[in-house]
Amino acid sequence: MATFKDFRNNVKPNWCPGCGDFSVQAAIQRAAANVGLEPENLAVISGIGCSGRISGYINSYGFHGIHGRALPIAQGVKMANRELTVIASGGDGDGFAIGMGHTVHAIRRNIDITYIVMDNQIYGLTKGQTSPRSAAGFKTKSTPEGSIEQAISPMELALTAGATFVAQSFSTDLKDLTALIEAGIKHKGFSFINVFSPCVTYNKVNTYDWFKENLTKLSDIEGYDPSNREMAMQTLMKHNGLVTGLIYQDKERKSYQELVPGYKETPLAHAELQLDEEQFDKLVAEFM
Amino acid sequence: MINQLSWKVGGQQGEGIESTGEIFSIALNRLGYYLYGYRHFSSRIKGGHTNNKIRVSTTQVRSISDDLDILVAFDQETIDVNYKELNDDGIIIADAKFIPKQPEDTKAVLYAVPFTDIATELGTSLMKNMVAIGATSAILDLDITVFEEVVQEIFGRKGRQVVEKNMQAIRTGFDFMKKKLGNIQKLQLEKADGKKRMFMIGNDAIALGALAGGCRFMAAYPITPASEIMEYLIKKLPAMGGTVIQTEDEIAAVTMAIGANYGGVRAITASAGPGLSLKMEAIGLSGITETPLVIIDTQRGGPSTGLPTKQEQSDLMAMIYGTHGEIPKIVIAPSTVEEAFYDTAEALNLAEEYQCPVIVLSDLQLSLGKQTVEPLEIDKVEIRRGKLITEKLPEIENKGYFKRYEVTEDGISPRVIPGMKNGIHHVTGVEHDETGKPSEAAENRIVQMSKRLRKIENIKFKTPVHKNVPHEEADLLIVGFISTRGAIEEAMARLEKDGIKTNHAHIRLIHPFPTDEMMPLVKSAKKIVVVENNATGQLANILKMNVGHAEKITKLLKFDGNPFLPHEIHTKCKELF
Q1: How far apart are CA A104 and CA A101, in angstroms?
Q2: Record's superkingdom (chain A) (predicted)?
Q3: For B334, which of A11, A232, B69, B339 could close a Cys bridge (C-beta 3.0–4.6 Å)?
Q4: Tens-digit pLDDT profile for residues A39-68
Q5: Among positive and negative, which fits the CA dihedral A257, A259, A265, A269?
Q6: Cβ A43–B212 below 8 Å, yes or no?
Q7: Is residue A92 helix, strand or coil?
Q8: pLDDT tens per residue, range B136-155
Q9: Distance from CA of B22 to the nearest CA of A (A)
C-alpha cells in the first residue's frame, strides 16, 4: 500500500518560503495515502496561478490546464474514467474570478470530484493585484486607493448553488485539513474545500496571525450540525465566513454519475469503440 | 413527365411549415426519389417568414435549384417573397383563407385552395398542412397512400382517430385540387427506383460518424446550427454507456472534452463561430499538451452574432490560425453528407494518431440541408489509436516520469492515459520537457516546438482534394469547399455544354494545405475561380499563399446569407470567357 511519501515527487516547488500552499500539498499527499490510493489512480487537475502549480508537485497523474478551467477539465477526466480519484485545485482568482461560472455549475452538477481552493485573497503570480476574495478597502497594485468591490463569500455561495459537501480549513491545521480532504474524496458527489492559504509576499493583511485571531473552529461551536443547511448558512453569516471544519454535507443526494442514464460502471476510457453491423444498421434504419 | 421538381412551402414561423416539408419529403424519399431540402428561417420561435425548399429528383442532387415549380403559400408574404423563382409553367397553391393575390409579372398560375377551411371542417385548422400535401400530390399525380405510413409514424401515438383525420385531410386536399386541375397535368413525376435510402441532415451524419468513430462522450453548449449533433448523441450514447453533458458555456464544453480525451475516452465538442471564438485558448492547450480533441464547427454568418441562421463560410482563417502561439492542427472540410459521416469518424482517428486538435469544418447549408444519402458503410470506418500504449509499462526508477513528450523522428510520442501504472507524467500548457515538467530552457523550447509542429508535416488523409478533372489542360478550374459542391457540379456541367473546358477541385483537407495535390491543377488551368460564401475570399487567399498563381485567380464571393445557386456560378464563370 502506498504511503504519503509515494505521492512525493522530485520536483521542488517554486512557491515562496512560508507559502500556505506547501501544507495543502502535504495534506493532499497524506489524504491520498490515508484513503488507500496508489499514485496512478489519482489525477490532480489544476488551474493557473501560484497554486495551480500543485499538480506538478504531487507524484500522480497531473494536468495543469488554463486559467480558470481546472473544473471542466477535471469533470471531463472523471467522466472518462470513473475509477480515478480526481482532485481539482487552484487559487481564489482561478476559481472565483475567471472560473466562477464553472465553480457554480460544477457545484450544482455534483460530479464526484474534490475541489480544493487555495484562498490567499490576492493575485500572487502576477505580483499583487486584488482578488474577488480581497476585502473592501484592501490596497493592492490594482486598487491603490483600496478595493471598492465587495468580497465574494464562497461557502455561502456554494450552499445556495446546491453543494453537497462544503468545508473550509486553514493551511497550518494540517491534521484537520488532511481529514477534510479524505472526507471530500470519500464523499459521493462534488466536494468543495476552501483553504485559507496565506500569501507571505503580497498579502500583509490576511496573514497567519490574522487568521489565527479571526478563525472559529466549527468543532468549538456547541451543537453545530453539518447536515443542517440553514444552520450552516446562519453560522457562516454570523462569523463572516471565517470558520473552519465541515460546514455542510448532504449524504443523501446522488452524484451525477449515479444519475446519468445508461452510464457504464466500467470506465468509458475502456469502452469498445467499434460499432457492430447490427447496431449500425439499426441506427441507419431510423433515417429511412 | 419530369425527372426533377422543385417545391417550396412557406408561411409564418411556428405554423407547421417545417412538418409540411418533412412529411412530404419522407414519403417521397421512401418512393426512391433523391431529395434535397433547404430551410430558410429566422432566429425566433414564432413569426417571421420561413420556407422550406425541396428538390425532388430521380438522380442525386446536392444543391438548391435555381428555379421553382410549385409554391405552397400559407400567407401572401410567401407569394410576394418567392414568386419570382417560379418557372413559366409554375404553380402557386395558396390558402384561400387569406384571399391570395396573383402577382402580375409571372406566368405561373395561382390556385386558391381552402387549406384552413377544409382542415377546420375535419376537426382542427392544424391539419391545413396535410390539405396542402394532398393538393401537391394531385398536381404531381402521386398515389397518396404513400403518406399513410409517415402519418402513422408521426401521429400514431395520438391514436387511430388522429391518424385517420390527417389522412382524410390529405385525401380531401387531393380531391379538391384534382377537380380544379381538370385535365391539366403538367408536372407528372417520373417514377423513382423505389430503393430505400437514408434521408438526413449533415449534422445527423456528423453525429452518426462520431458514434461510428468511437466517440463516447460529448460536452457542448447549444448553438445554431450545431445543436442537432448533441441532441442526436444524447439519444444514442446512453445505450453505449456514454453520455453528453450540456455545459455552462463554450469554454467548459471544450475544456471538458479535453479532460475526457486526456482521460482516455474519445470525446468531441461542436459549435458555430461564436463558440469557436470562445474555445480558442483551449485549442492551444490541446495543441501544446498534445491532447487529442475533435471540434465540429458548423459555420454560420458572422461576425459576432452576425446572421445566426444563415449560410456562410467565413470561419476558415480563424479555424486554421485561431489560438495564440503556434500549434499543430488539422482542419478537414467534408463536402457532402456522406463525407460528413466518414470525415467525422476519421477525425477521431487523426486526433489520436497526431495527438492534436482536429477541426471538422461544416457550414449551415451542409449541416442543416436535409437530403437523400447513399448507403453509409460501417466496414469503411476503422478505429486507429496511434501511439496509445495499452500494454504494461516497465517500472521507472526513483520516481522518474514517463516520457510522454519523448522526442521522436515523426514528432509523435507514446501516450498513456491516467490509471496506467508506471505511466505517471505531467501535462501542462507551460512549455515542458520530455516528461512534461515545465522548462523554459531555450534549447528545450526549440526541440519541443519543432517536435510538435513536425507531427502533421506528412499527414495521411485519404482524399485531400475531391477532384472532377476531365481535362489535362483546362480553360477553367473551379475551386470550392464544403457545401458549394453541388452548385459547382451543376454549373460545371453547363459550362462544359458551353464549350468551356472545366475542372473542379473541392478541397477537403484545409490544413495542412494539400499544395502538392493542387499545384498541377492550378498550373494546367488558364483561369481559376474560387467559389466561397464569405466577403473576403479566404479560400482564394489560402490558395494563393500556398500555390501562388495569383494572376489566374478570380474570387466568386457570396455573403448575403444564402447558398450559391448553380446559375450564379455558371453566369459568373462564363463572363470570364
Answers
A1: 6
A2: Bacteria
A3: B339
A4: 999 999 999 999 999 999 999 999 999 999
A5: negative
A6: no
A7: helix
A8: 999 999 999 999 999 999 99
A9: 12
